[in-house]
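Table S2 (text version). Query chain:
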Amino acid sequence: MSLYLEYIKEIESRKADLGLAPKPIDSAELLSEIIAQIKDQNHEHREDSLKFFIYNTLPGTTSAAGVKAKFLKEIILGQESVSEITPEFAFELLSHMKGGPSIEVLLDLALSDDPSVSAPAAAVLKSQVFLYEADTSRLQAAYKAGNAVAKDILESYAKAEFFTKLPDIDEKIEVVTYIAGEGDISTDLLSPGHQAHSRADRELHGKCMITPEAQDEIKALQAKHPGAKVMLIAEKGTMGVGSSRMSGVNNVALWAGEQASPYVPFINIAPVVAGTNGIAPIFLTTVDVTGGIGLDLKNWVKKVDADGNTVTDKNGDPILEEAYSVATGTILTIDTKAKKLYKGDEELVDVSSAFTPQKMEFMKAGGSYAVTFGKKLQTLAAETLGIDAPQVYAPSKEISHEGQGLTAVEKIFNRNAVGVASDTPLHAGSNVRVKVNIVGSQDTTGPMTCQELEAMAASTISPLVDGAYQSGCHTASVWDSKAQANIPKLMSFMNNFGLITARDPKGVYHAMTDVIHKVLNDITVDDRAIIIGGDSHTRMSKGVAFGADSGTVAIALATGESAMPIPDSVKVVFKGHMKSHMDFRDVVHATQAQMLKQFGGENVFQGRIIEVHIGTLMADQAFTFTDWTAEMKAKASICISNDETLIKSIELAKSRIQIMINKGMDNEANMLAGLIKLADKRIEEIKSGVQPALSPDDNAKYYAEVTVDLDAISEPMIADPDVNNDDVSKRYTHDVIRPVSYYKNKPVDLGFVGSCMVHKGDMQIIAQMLRNLEKQNGSVEFKAPLVVAPPTYNIVDELKAEGDWEVLEKYSGFVFDDDKPKGEARTKYDNILYLERPGCNLCMGNQEKAEPGDTVIATSTRLFQGRVVADTAEKKGESLLGSTPLVVLSTVLGRFPTMDEYTAAVEGIDLTNFEPPTEEMSTKYIPVKAV
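Corresponding structure-token output:
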């Protein structure tokens, strides 16, 4: 059967089974067959073939795009004739192909000796921004050889006419409201984790947004109000908390945005989203990628008494009052000039934060990528012509306060800033381009990152990037047909692009399923690095790391840069001493609880950097804190370590990078070997005193300062989704932290130790507890299942060498086998210990899940509704989060333990301990000029 007939068969199946349109074409072989049918005037499939060629072929650097661009060139040159595609129309189609082969064709035509094709080709080129070195080098060479067309194009680029000639955004945008949920809306609602396999198939994945009923309601609003855009709202909450998911914004744009190009299917842009408490920082970045609008509505405010004091309920939470209604179906107007939201003539709220000069540029350009590439192209063109580039784009916002020291994040941004005009250090609020040192792509968003790279015509990793890794952890639990179809293809693409990949396309080294955050933490060898990763838990304990959507990961890989504001910081310090029966995870939860108490329920961490003065805790253990900062709604976190601890952490990272090299994972560019050289350099800087461990200045300015009292932590602390709270908006918030005594006699149906929140010490704690329990009771019997997933293979190997793995195996009823990985996800569990393959496992919810309605106690990070455990009609599923020893004991007992039971079980065990630094972790401020 021909490829075309197979494609038709797939189309019929998609339509009949799923109600979907034809899948967009990315295959050169299929499109070549389609072109052959177009050339045959009498072919029975010619009409459909034309439609597929024009309207259903993916642009950028897909192999199909190369074939399409070549055929369009032949039509323009008169080598082929297609009555339905005139040379003029062929140029229009090339203008929508966004780089790669289309730019190569346009340059061929523009630099030719035939003015009938060079002039229109140059006109199209002037509208393009996705040019790479190979493209700009051709232009520069032609210009230096005296080519007038090349000069004309470069002059247009120097003026940034590709941007200035675009229409401005509308002054008035009418919206109709749609309340997508009450309380914080996680990106899991917009793009569920268990549907991760379909993200690259945008139309199919769009079917999973919220519910089918919600999708019908959105369509009904669009039909009733054709002149308005549907605005999705998180009522009494924040929109887009949790994962940094491009697919979530893609789904919103698919249902409520605009088609980016009439010739590219299911690529929509410009959605409008809003929240009572605004948009989560990582989600807002994704909104910017699509040129969308994210509003902070402030439509619920704290009730105050006659004295101006906040009125609280019986739980001590602030009582909210509605400032104005955004009930579904309300017509509102966004005034982009006044930067205000109106209902008729009534002004409701100032929304200027959504319409900064930079965000307005993203909206005008159709997304942040075009602005990033446009700025680089303008600069290059001006330098080639030997002129100063005119000020077209809004200048970088550069804020500097004389005499004010720098926080840790301000120091990192100043070190990595690109194209800064200021000769004094920049402070929070500045908006700059920065060099990205480390980039990570994970496997459920990775296929989308590949699409983004193809769409922006990128073919190889930027030489500015020190290290980059493609993981296999999110699909590690079950090697099913979906994983087998997606993952090898992903690994091959990323390996060819220049990343270190968990799976070797050539099959030389053993496939790895190590948790991406752990690997990124290991390959980060500089405490002044900037890291971008395709997951919200990209929160390294060295440097500053930002969880990002698949698109931001793609642009970091392609350019080695990212544009972002320098965030405010909140300083976290500790006092007192940890009790011997407490685990560091309890400190992490207590930090959140004590912060909320100190600030009257206000989450001062939200949208800011948490600068935690950790002192002597190694990066492996400190990661437990930085990882959880995603659930604190922080933008990122920075650990301040002393010199000795930082050197130990970098030495550990070096040893683990060397293991990766020994396994054969380094690439042709010797990326991993390069990281070891960088690690050696950083260690020498610290030892010599030339550049000690990163620390803030003693007069740095913070948004807030939090002191965590370790003496006040006497019980294991649990993060509770509070699924039965009468106020729906307060469920699944991560802000409910309770002591274990609250859960007296509460049954536990399943325990999970794993994902990115655990380290080698947690695995050792399990082994020690099992020894303790056997000694106390003669044997160990589980009354609830316990699933254990180590984060990395390195840890498994170290445990085997030290004897603890043998203890875990002794008590397990299932041990993973890489030679025969599971082909199906579990739906039922026995009361045994499951030793699972390294990876995310239950935390993701896309493969393994607890049984519906279960009460789960886990070391995981997620409280999303339905993620780890679904609801039943009779009972809501609960995913409570706690420390490793608490999880283990709860599964042995089949319920939450009493404090006596808990202290007996952990007696003599070396838990993840922590002592606050005794010295001040800051540096004497010395005024300096920026480098």
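Notes on Table S2: The radius of gyration is 28 Å. The first strand starts at residue 172 and ends at 182.
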